[in-house]
Design brief:
Blueprint: E1 3-9, H1 13-29, E2 32-39, H2 45-50, E3 56-60, H3 66-76, E4 81-84, H4 96-105, E5 110-114, H5 126-142, E6 154-157, H6 158-163, H7 173-183, E7 188-192, H8 208-223
Parallel strand pairs: 1-2, 1-4, 2-3, 5-7
Antiparallel strand pairs: 4-6, 5-6
Amino acid sequence: MNYSLIIPIYNEGHTLQLLLNKLDKLNNNNNIEIIIIDDGSNDDTKEILNKNDLFIILNNKINSGKGASIKKGIKSANNQNIILIDGDLEIDIDQIPRLIKKYEKSDKDVLTGIRWNKNSNIKLEINALGNFFINSLFNVLYRTNLNDVLCCVKILNTNLLKSLDIQSNGFSIEIETTAKLLLRNRTIEEANINYIRRSSYQGKKLKISDGWIIAWVLIKFKLFK
């Protein structure tokens, strides 16, 4: 199998070189096409990317959102399968070969990551509680038992992903993708991943307002399918 790795980034200049180094190592050892989408960054992200000629670099002229960036990457994907992952290094790129092996051994349609499970201790922080609320609401509405519906890591067939006709331009792309897969009776396997969550001071971009949009999207696709 071959893969197109799609990575949206926005203002990640402080960690971008480390990301590129990890991607270079990944590129040397696997049959992976790497597509990075700069979502209108206004730091030194663009300058750093311009010095790299190993990967496919796409640019949004203005900040258009994570979903818009991923959709642009999907259109440029040439390989059989797609890997989606954020470029902020909260989830280490070094885990991708292990996830690919698990996907190729699986009899499920999609592999998604688990940053934590339902038995994890949830810290009393807004983002963690928001994740718990969204995940619980999703499981109730879609009659599933998933652990982490907002995880950014997914591996699935390229044609399958393109057929979903994703509409979300923001963070709600995670929920829309999973909802549409389940509404088509596609099967999902979860895999544990190492995750180090950043604070807003360190560059975390998900806001409380995004949480309400995500909640509406998961309700909308269930009730108005």
